[in-house]
Design goal:
Chain B: Component of the ubiquinol-cytochrome c reductase complex (complex III or cytochrome b-c1 complex), which is a respiratory chain that generates an electrochemical potential coupled to ATP synthesis. Chain B: Its cofactor is [2Fe-2S] cluster. Chain B: It is a single-pass membrane protein. Chain B: It holds the Pfam family UCR_Fe-S_N. The complex is a heterodimer. Chain A is mainly alpha-helical. The longest helix of chain A has 30 residues, at 187-216. Chain A has helices spanning 12-20, 23-32, 46-65, 75-84, 89-116, 125-147, 152-165, 172-180, 187-216, 237-262, 292-300, 310-331, 345-363, 371-396, 406-411; strands at residues 35-37, 234-236. Chain A has a two-stranded antiparallel ribbon with strand order 1-2. Chain A has two domains: 25-281, Cytochrome Bc1 Complex, Chain C, CATH 1.20.810; 286-408, no CATH class. In chain A, helix 12 runs parallel beside helix 14. Chain A has 15 helices and two strands. By secondary structure, chain B is an alpha+beta fold. The mean pLDDT of chain B is 87. Chain B has two domains: 10-40; 47-174, Rieske Iron-sulfur Protein. In chain B, a hairpin with a 4-residue loop joins strand 6 (133-137) and strand 7 (142-145). Classes of the chains: A mainly alpha, B alpha+beta. The A-B interface holds A 156, 159-160, 162-164, 177-179, 181-186, 188, 192, 278-281, 283-285, 299, 302, 304, 309-311, 314, 366-368 and B 36, 39-42, 45, 65, 67, 69-72, 117, 119-124, 138-141, 153-156.
């Protein structure tokens, strides 16, 4: 969007640089002058919060890697060494561990914001799909990171998840051995997960670059979901949204810091302070909270469907749950973006949010009644929401009248006076 | 013939382009394969593929868990009651039908040797528990009987019997 540039090189040096590598011009266009809808609410600050979270994870992670030993004999002790002996290590390790949880808090809020305000609709489909790719990469990174402390949950979580590969017909066991580098989770697994856990955040950063690029072509969606019509609908990104985002980051850091300083282990599992033992399974394996909704969907399929056995069925359901997110731009064909103006959608969306939290709760419960039946009901609603409710609502719902412009929605009829 | 017509027909140059591209693609694949293959189990892992174990210290009704290829393996000295129970089950009751005879070695019916990972998602089941006098997996609630066969729960198959043989009455070679 170079037409928004107001950059005029101020000195001969700036002019010289601008003719060769217009990096200052680029920054001014995209970080300062970028025209942003003037009605964005605080739900729109989570993009910037997520950039901060990624930065926190990369910085603390690089520091932890300086003290960590990716070997089954040393890994568990080296994490304790970081927590007890390294200067400030207790806080740095806690920031990284709590940071993973806070990352997912922001990520889920950011995604649910998009799902409510129709941010995935044309012309932002690629933007949304890149976001789902970031979510999947972040999930993989977090999963591999959880293996590294080499506690009981690390080991058995890795065992359970890698067994998912063995559900694939015919080649499943070969793929599992290729991923683990052995017949069971062991030293080769820990080594390669460490390597990939270090690599993936930089891949995520690259995809975030594409995500922002794809955002800056159509520009931001906004809480009323009508397109920007003229310059009265927008304000420059700086200082209006740089400051709003910074304020939101500070507020977000308050619970973050509370966890780091007062309850660094509360989001983890006590079993992970027992070193990994391939001979003993903990009585109750629970993944990290942010993976629980998808874990519940995996477990919910405990029955055979035609020729598909229960294990493969669960894996297909979990993959399908993530695939639904990728194709949602083509499932919800309603022209109205913002849920605010969709009287029926609002209620189904609200139920979807509650259902997602229920899936999260159920994933942490034992595989016994009434939880197994509830898990099936909640899994069914997850899929019905995407595959039935969204397409049908698009056809039968009468939306409320939309404001004619962003300005009108902010100022009321005064904008026309 | 006009110059344009010559360009629309396939000529020697097109063949060279395709041939060069194809050789390049094969070359790239040949380079990528070792980069992927290094992830497969290495020589030191494969070297542990066969172990010998003396079962004589295991008393009747006792189980031990040993390690083979990094996997836990149950060696159970079954009681006559357990063997009888396992053999009395009609095959039609089983999710993954297999006779008890097919899961042990002839003449060594009291010894049940199985990989100790639940066939669902790999947890180690608890011994002498569950509804069928066999094993119970606490992770997702699979019940196995005294022959290690799946009877109830999400696991799709019986506990896996590894390849093994009795070298003498008490010495077993697994793998």
């Amino acid at each position: 969007m170079s037409e928004h540039s107001t950059y005029v090189p101020g000195s001969a040096v700036e002019k010289w640089l601008d003719d060769r590598l217009p990096v200052v011009r680029f920054a001014k266009e995209h970080l300062m002058d970028f025209p942003t809808p003037k009605n964005l609410n605080y739900w729109w600050t989570f993009g910037a919060i997520l950039v901060m979270c990624l930065g926190v994870q990369i910085v603390t992670g690089i520091i932890l890697a300086m003290h960590y030993a990716p070997n089954v004999a040393l890994a568990f002790d080296s994490v304790e060494h970081i927590r007890r002996d390294i200067n400030g290590g207790r806080v740095i390790q806690a920031t990284h561990a709590v940071g993973a949880s806070m990352f997912f808090v922001a990520l889920y809020i950011h995604m649910f914001r998009g799902l409510f305000y129709g941010s995935y609709k044309a012309p932002r489909e690629i933007l949304w799909i890149l976001g789902v790719v970031i979510f999947l990469l972040t999930t993989a990174t977090a999963f591999m990171g959880y293996i590294l402390p080499w506690g009981q949950m690390s080991f058995w979580g890795a065992t359970v998840i890698s067994n998912i590969f063995s559900a694939i017909p015919i080649v499943g066991d070969s793929i599992k051995q290729l991923v683990l580098g052995g017949f069971a989770v062991g030293n080769p697994t820990l080594n390669r997960f460490f390597s990939l856990h270090y690599l993936l955040p930089f891949i995520i950063a690259a995809v975030v670059g594409l995500h922002i690029w794809a955002l800056h072509v159509p520009g931001n969606n906004n809480p009323v979901g009508v397109d920007v019509k003229d310059s009265r609908d927008t304000v420059p990104f700086h200082p209006y949204y740089t400051m709003k985002d910074l304020f939101a980051m500070v507020v977000f850091m308050i619970p973050f810091a509370w966890f780091v300083f007062f309850a660094p282990d509360i989001l983890g599992h006590p079993d992970n302070y027992i070193m990994a033992n391939s001979q003993v399974t903990p009585a109750h394996i629970v993944p990290e909270w942010y993976l629980l909704p998808f874990y519940t969907i995996l477990r919910a399929i405990d029955f055979n469907v035609l020729f598909i056995n229960s294990k493969l069925g669960g894996v297909i359901a979990m993959g399908g749950a993530m695939l639904c997110l990728l194709i949602v731009p083509w499932l919800d064909t309603s022209k109205v973006r913002a849920g605010t103006f969709r009287p029926m959608f609002k209620w189904f969306y609200g139920l979807f949010v509650i259902n997602f939290i229920a899936l999260m709760y159920l994933g942490a419960q034992e595989a016994a009644e009434p939880y197994t039946t509830l898990a099936k009901v909640c899994t069914a609603y997850y899929f019905i929401y995407f595959l039935v409710i969204l397409p049908v609502l698009s056809r039968i719902e009468t939306p409320k009248p939309l404001p004619t412009s962003i300005s009108e929605s902010v100022l009321g009829n005064k904008a026309h006076a | 013939m006009s110059t344009q017509a010559e360009h629309t027909t396939t000529n020697r140059r097109d063949f060279l382009f395709v041939a060069t591209g194809a050789v390049g693609a094969v070359g790239a694949a040949a380079v990528v394969w070792p980069l992927i293959n290094q992830l497969n189990p290495d020589a030191s892992t494969l070297a542990l593929a066969s172990i010998q174990y003396d079962v004589s210290p295991i008393a009747e009704g006792q189980s031990v868990t040993i390690t083979w290829r990094g996997l836990p393996v149950f060696v159970r000295h079954r009681t006559p009651k357990e063997i009888e129970e396992a053999r009395a089950v009609p095959l039609s009751d089983l999710k993954d039908p297999a006779t008890d005879e097919s899961r042990v070695k002839e003449g060594h019916e009291q010894w049940l040797i199985m990989i100790a990972n639940c066939t669902h998602l790999g947890c180690i089941p608890t011994g002498q528990a569950g509804d069928f006098d066999g094993w119970f997996c606490p992770c997702h609630g699979s019940h196995y009987d005294s022959s290690g066969r799946i009877r109830k729960g999400p696991a799709p198959a019986n506990l896996v019997v590894p390849p093994y043989e009795f070298l003498s009455d008490t010495l077993v070679q697994i793998g």
